[in-house]
Amino acid sequence: MSEAKLVSPPVSEAAASTAPLDGLAACMQAAAGCGKCRLGATRRNMVFGEGDPHAALMFIGEGPGADEDQQGRPFVGKAGQLLDKMIVAMGYAREEVYIANIVKCRPPGNRNPEPDEAAACIGFLHAQIAAVSPRAIVLLGAVAARFLLQRQEGITRLRGNWTEYNGIPVMPTYHPSFLLRQESAKRDAWSDLKQVMAYLGKPLPVRR
Ligand code: SF4
User: Looking at the domain assignment, is residue 182 inside a domain?
Assistant: First the structure.
């Protein structure tokens, strides 16, 4: 958890920073003691999310796995390492984006969150998005799309097509865990990320 970012905004950003910082800090405090669903009883650590509270780009996955539960940070296992590479390939440092999940506590055995668990937790994510107010969101996998956007289609159908959440452009793409199992899908994922880069004005790699 990049707590320093939550409590110590750069001085030059002071006035503009207070709203997202206050919003995120209050939200994190509420989630820290949360027992609104059964996942709170089995978690080791609540995994709130982390990153730049003013990030232009936000990544949203489905929920913490074992490594994340252990460390209290999102996307720190093998899938997280791949996500880091994806972020760097887009021209960002991990610290420059904001990373969160649908549920803040690990579903046992890395199962998908149940609808009632997602419903209990989604308010935290709504508050995080409102506080960060990113210019674009990348949704990682079908589960994230189902619970944030109420989209029931598979990720193969959803990916690569812009949609929106409260006026914020959203690009669904494959979850890094899937990409680790299905190397051939990386090309499509990169194509999705390049659309996001173009939207955010990031230079696209020149083909040689
Ligand atoms: S998953 Fe969300 S709603 Fe459930 S206990 Fe954890 S923080 Fe609370």
Answer: yes
Which pTM was predicted?
A: 0.90
Residue with CA nearest ligand 1 atom 2: 121
Tens digits of per-residue pLDDT, 58-86?
999 999 999 999 999 999 999 999 999 99
Which of 193, 45, 192, 28 is CA-nearest to residue 106? Answer: 45
Domain CATH number, residue 195? 3.40.470.10
DSSP code, position 12: G
Q: Tally the domains of the chain.
A: 1
Mutating to test ligand 1, I would choose from 44, 112, 121, 125 the residue with most ligand atoms within 8 A of its C-beta, which is 121
CA distances from 103 to 52, 151, 160, 191 (A): 20, 17, 24, 27
